Amino acid sequence: MTFSVQDVSVSYPTSRGWVQAVRNVDLQIRPGELVGLAGESGSGKSTLVLAATRVLKAPAVSVTGRVEIMGQDVFAWSDKELRAQRWQTFSFVTQSAMNALNPVMRVRAQMHDAMRAHDPHYQKAKADKRCEEVLRIVEVPAAKLDSYPHQLSGGQRQRMVIALALLLQPQLVIMDEPTTALDVVAQREIIALIRRLQRELGFAVLLITHDLSLLLEVADAVTVMYGGRVMESGRSHELLRKASHPYSRALIHSFPPLHGAMQRQEGIPGTPPDMLNPPLGCPFAARCVMATKECGEQMPPLTRYGDRLVACHHVSEQDFQGAGVIV
Question: Could you tell me the fold of the domain covering 3-89+170-320?
Answer without folding.
Answer: Rossmann fold (3.40.50)
